[in-house]
Design goal:
Shape: elongated
Strand content: over 45%
Helix content: under 10%
Structural class: mainly beta
Distance between the termini: 59 Å
């Protein structure tokens, strides 16, 4: 028999309704479906007041997220409160072969109350049982009702017995569901080694965008000792205590269908405060902030923004030396094919860079490029490119970082026209009885432009071209600087041979090449690979013998010194349940170091400088419901580890356990990072419990 009342439905073997008392009685295989989608099963239920009040026995309730609750008795009040006696609650699936076995975890309590108005379930005198074994007792315990995604209330508390800077600390977040689109989470923190902190996260999902603000204030009572960084600069950190705080705010908004705006502001009172209270972002060199507006058209893009930075790692960064871009304008345009078959593109980057100590400059840039591809009957693929770069600077304090040029203020600029012609000539053949194919592809490129020199001695600001990359990825690039303050120029030719073999799931792909240049820039950054008319040869090879191995290696060899100036490799191998990845990189000198130490003026003994020579590795394994991973990073030139770590865990349909170890050997702010051990427990519909030390 079935009975409906609004959005509620009652089904049972026998249903009796007493008109005089208004009591409806259901017996045998009772199923009571409610508005929130949950279903209550029972042997016997008596309901009244339009199914809002009632009692029941031998009750079993199935809710969202596979949550289940069983009880010996039920009392229902006003359709809002459900009181249960002798309760068992779990979100784990029962064993199909033996359903009488206890679930992986369950909460067994003397009584429980489901409050649908406040969307939670409260347990009294509860035991947490794992595989039927009691492991923890709760005089009182509450969880969010699985029928809702969020509601007001306290979240899972966090207790850490030991932390290097906080000592023993305790947090208990509180979540406030303001309305359907916004909420805020408060998180007070109390610690034994320093003062308290109150932090909060505000989120708002608007119809036209989103907003998120995270911040905190604290009384940091830790006092820090002064230290001297690797450049001989001494910092007094003793004043970085007392009232401290931070704010991280970001938002993105749609102004209309073509224009968008937003901001990302990140500011903290000190790096020491971020370290002491585990503020996310500590360990990075800087905190960046920007505000922007951008627009999209047919083939065009424009962005206007302002950027600023706060230094966190005083081992290498001073706040007074960090730049502010106030503002920065970027414009890109890609045109449709013209009657000649070519395509015009336009690029412009204009900005004003301010430093309280260092070079200050304004730049206006416009680059026009026209590309015309074509091919002939021989199978040759051609690309004709014409480009004009124009740049105008107004600069001051060039004798200071990052260029250490000639002082004074002046206006300078340049115009660089460039013409390039590139030819790819692929040849294809088959082998292995048609199951394999080989591509042999010579590539030749000619580039003609006036010789500008572009050495670091040039009396022009340099904001975006501190690095120069001559590898297989930039062999045929018009400009191999990473920006446009310095441009490749002169008459040069690039040649390369690309080959590929593919057969029966195996493949080998490789590229080798060189560059020939009429003009030599011997003042280019050291180890650029372009110190002679004939460049250092470069190459790249990718080998995939089967689905279990993938190897890519690239490098640049210096025949005049008889060694590699640059090399890197990445290996991935293993089975679906066991995977290993490893990486290696070798680069003699970090370009930033040359500028930071005023390379042009002091000319250090370059061969004696320590190279970047690092090896990384990671292994991951997943067998059934268990997973293991480990990683390492080692600085070969210093014979020291940079970081090590790993994770061991278990996960099923309702429970997860992870033991995470992190060890960092780097110095940030004059102090060495320590080891961290994290222990996380995840219970479906309840939350995550964590312990760290």
């Amino acid at each position: 028999m079935r009975v409906w009342q609004g959005d509620q439905a009652l089904r049972a073997d026998k249903i009796t309704y007493d008109r005089a008392s208004g009591i409806m009685t259901a017996n045998g295989h009772v199923a009571f479906v409610q508005q929130d989608g949950s279903t209550t099963y029972a042997d016997h239920i008596e309901l009244t007041q339009g199914l809002k009040d009632g009692i029941g026995s031998a009750v079993y309730m199935r809710m969202q997220q596979n949550a289940k609750l069983a009880a010996t008795g039920l009392r229902r009040t006003s359709g809002v409160l459900n009181d249960f006696s002798n309760v068992v609650y779990t979100a784990c699936a029962l064993c199909e072969k033996n359903p009488d076995l206890p679930p992986f975890w369950q909460i067994q309590a003397y009584g429980a109350t489901q409050d649908k108005e406040h969307t939670n379930i409260e347990f009294n005198h509860a035991w947490l049982k794992m595989l039927g074994i009691p492991v923890f007792y709760f005089p009182y315990f509450a969880v969010t009702d699985p029928t809702v995604k969020r509601h007001n209330g306290f979240l899972i508390p966090n207790i850490s017995p030991h932390d290097r800077y906080l000592g023993t600390y305790f947090t208990i977040p509180y979540f406030w569901d303001i309305d359907d689109q916004q909420d805020i989470t408060f998180e007070p923190l109390v610690a034994t080694k320093t003062g308290p902190q109150l932090s909060a996260i505000y989120r708002n999902r608007l119809n036209f965008g989103r907003l998120k603000i995270k911040g905190g204030v604290a009384d940091d009572t830790r006092r820090n000792s002064p230290y001297t960084n690797p450049f001989g600069q001494r910092y007094d950190n003793t004043s970085k205590h007392g009232a401290q705080g931070y704010i991280f705010a970001n938002g993105d908004f749609a102004i209309n269908r073509h224009w968008y705006g937003g901001f990302d502001v990140n500011v903290a009172s000190s790096a020491n405060y971020m370290r002491d209270y585990r503020i996310p972002g500590y360990g990075n060199d800087t905190l960046g902030s920007n505000i922007y507006v951008e627009g999209y058209g047919v083939g065009s893009f424009l962005r206007l923004d302002a950027q600023g930075y706060q230094g966190l790692n005083r081992g290498i960064i001073n706040n007074s030396e960090l730049p502010f871009a106030l503002p920065r304008l970027t414009y890109e345009f890609q045109g449709e094919p013209d009657p000649l078959g070519g395509r015009l593109s336009v690029h412009s980057t204009d900005f004003f860079v301010y430093r309280s100590r260092g070079a200050v400059d304004q730049r206006g840039e416009l680059a026009l490029q026209w590309d015309r591809p074509f091919h002939n009957n021989l199978g040759q693929q051609w690309l004709l490119t014409g480009r004009v770069d124009t740049t105008l600077y107004h600069a001051k304090h060039l004798e200071e970082q990052p260029n250490y040029g000639h002082g004074g203020g002046h206006v300078r600029g340049f115009v660089l026209p460039t013409v390039a012609l590139k030819m790819n000539w692929p040849f294809l053949r088959t082998f292995a009885k048609g199951h394999g194919s080989q591509i042999f592809e010579p590539i030749i490129q000619l580039i003609a432009a006036p010789n500008m020199g572009n050495s670091i001695n040039r009396n022009l600001p340099n904001e975006d071209s501190l690095t120069y990359e001559f590898t297989d990825t930039t062999l045929f690039a018009l400009n191999r600087y990473m920006g446009t303050d310095r441009l490749d120029s002169g008459l040069r030719a690039n040649v390369g041979i690309h080959q590929n073999w593919s057969w029966n799931g195996h493949s080998v792909d490789m590229l080798v090449g060189e560059s020939f240049q009429e003009h030599i820039d011997r003042n280019r950054l050291p180890y650029s690979g372009l110190d002679h008319h004939v460049s250092d040869p470069i190459g790249r090879i990718t080998i995939t013998p089967n689905q279990y191995v993938d190897l890519t290696a690239r490098g640049r060899y210096n025949p005049w010194r008889g060694n590699f100036d640059y090399g890197e490799a990445l290996l991935s191998t293993g089975l679906p349940f066991l995977r290993f990845t490893g990486g290696y990189v070798y680069e003699p000198i970090t370009p930033y170091y040359l500028y930071r130490t005023n390379y042009r003026r002091f000319r250090p003994n370059l061969p004696s400088l320590r190279p970047t020579n690092e090896l990384t590795g990671r292994v991951t394994a997943k067998i059934g419901q268990y997973h293991v991973s480990a990683y390492t990073r080692r600085a070969m030139q210093q014979k020291k580890f940079v970081a090590n770590g790993g994770d061991v865990g278990y996960e099923n349909d309702c429970f997860g356990l992870d033991v995470i170890y992190i060890r960092q050997y780097t110095y940030v702010g004059g102090e060495k990072r320590n080891s961290t051990v994290l222990l996380n427990f995840f219970f479906k519909t309840i939350g995550t419990f964590g312990v760290n030390g």
